[in-house]
TrEMBL record:
Protein name, UniProt field: Uncharacterized protein
């Protein structure tokens, strides 16, 4: 028979987090639908657009799978299966916990890949950016693989808890470092682009769109980095009271964050396309000779600012 305190603790650590995650999943669903509609409206004309759509779909499937695993785990806990005698084999409850932990890592890895991919495009596909980003993402992936093997007791069967703590710490540390790395690259490009525009006294909409897109990417990177730091603190006991709620909402918040960034980027691109339609260029500016003359007359900084704008178009 459960006492009042134990029943309250059971509700606080199991039932309320499931309800919270369900609410966040509804929000995630709505934002995902908006992002898909905007992507379709903007047009799926490049490989990058299909990549964004695929990542959105994978994150949404992962979020649904995590919530179902959470519901199943809560049902097992309420049935008091966790009080069964411990054996060397995985119980259903332990298996569900392992599934929940490993599923949420998928969204973290996808977030790392997409933010480093954007930074690589913004830096005009520089090799050194690609190599450093690849090393960081590979570290996160290796940590996730080790975490899966540990949770299934395929390695370190007698020190599962300690090994899982170490692997999860490595995963989160690597993911935070990756986000900070990519955000720093985009922050520098934002500052550089703004300096170029001020030097050239340019007020063209294409350049302002590039600056707005860079600002969105930098802000989203900072938010994601802070979210990962909070998740790490809760995962290792520093925010113990809120740990069940943070763990339950981490996957959904990661997906919502991604979908909102897609909505903002698509909205900005649609606004820019509407501007181009309302102010078409003159016929003279469309001739190859006039374009070459205009480019030759511009200072070197203009070419760099124009390259930044073209990189933004690849992202949005």
């Amino acid at each position: 028979m459960l006492t009042t305190d134990s029943a309250r603790a059971l509700v606080d650590t199991n039932i309320f987090p499931v309800i919270l995650e369900a609410g966040l999943l509804v929000i995630f669903s709505l934002v995902t639908v908006c992002s898909v509609v905007l992507l379709h409206k903007k047009g799926l004309s490049t490989r990058a657009h299909y990549t964004v759509l695929s990542v959105s779909g994978i994150m949404f499937v992962v979020a649904i799978a995590h919530w179902f695993a959470h519901v199943a785990l809560t049902s097992r806990v309420l049935d008091k299966v966790h009080k069964a005698p411990r054996s060397q084999h995985l119980t259903t409850t332990e298996m569900l916990r392992a599934v929940m932990v490993n599923i949420q890592i998928i969204n973290f890895i996808l977030t790392d890949l997409i933010i480093t991919w954007r930074a690589w495009l913004i830096w005009d596909r520089e090799n050194w950016v690609f190599i450093v980003s690849l090393c960081l993402c590979t570290t996160t992936f290796i940590g996730a693989l080790v975490d899966v093997l540990v949770s299934l007791r395929l390695i370190f069967p007698r020190s599962t808890v300690e090994a899982m703590v170490a692997s999860q710490f490595a995963i989160l540390s690597s993911s935070i470092t990756t986000n900070l790395w990519a955000t720093s690259l985009m922050t520098y490009k934002t500052w550089q682009h703004r300096v170029l525009l001020q030097a050239l006294l340019i007020e063209d909409k294409s350049c302002s769109m590039a600056e707005k897109v860079l600002s969105i990417l930098v802000e989203s990177g900072v938010i994601m980095s802070w979210a990962l730091v909070v998740f790490m603190l809760s995962n290792f006991g520093w925010l113990f009271a809120a740990s069940p709620y943070i763990s339950a909402s981490a996957v959904q918040i990661c997906g919502i964050h991604w979908a909102i960034v897609v909505v903002f980027l698509c909205t900005e691109r649609l606004r820019y396309d509407a501007y181009l339609v309302s102010k078409p260029p003159s016929l003279a500016s469309l001739t190859p000779g006039s374009r070459r003359r205009r480019k030759a007359e511009q200072p070197p900084e203009f070419e760099e600012a124009e390259a930044n704008s073209e990189a933004m178009e690849q992202i949005v």
